[in-house]
Amino acid sequence: MELLKESLVVIHLAGMAVLVGAFIVNMKRKSDFPFTAMMWAAIVQLSTGTLLVGLSYALDDAPDNFKITVKTLLATGALVAAIIGRKRQAHGESKLQPFFHAAGGFAVINLIIAVLWNAELWS
Asked: Fewer CB in 10 Å around end: N or C, the chain?
């Protein structure tokens, strides 16, 4: 069971790396945003995150429900922004920067929450 959990963590972190990396690398772009990669990375994040939470409950190691709720909402926001941006980009629309920055911004905030929520800084 530990191997499954650690494998899911690796996949979850890979999804985060793609999502945040695509955002950081392309922040200065004005068009041709990598919405498809961001969308799939957000899907990986949501699915592996859900599996990790379920696995935590199965192993009697219940996570902080409020933290998980906040992170799920942010990940869903990133996914929705990436999907909308991808669809609009496919139809040749302009003014896609807000969707790109929303998807990336939600992902970065989610990353910061993941790292700092239980940090000893607050003790």
From this structure: C
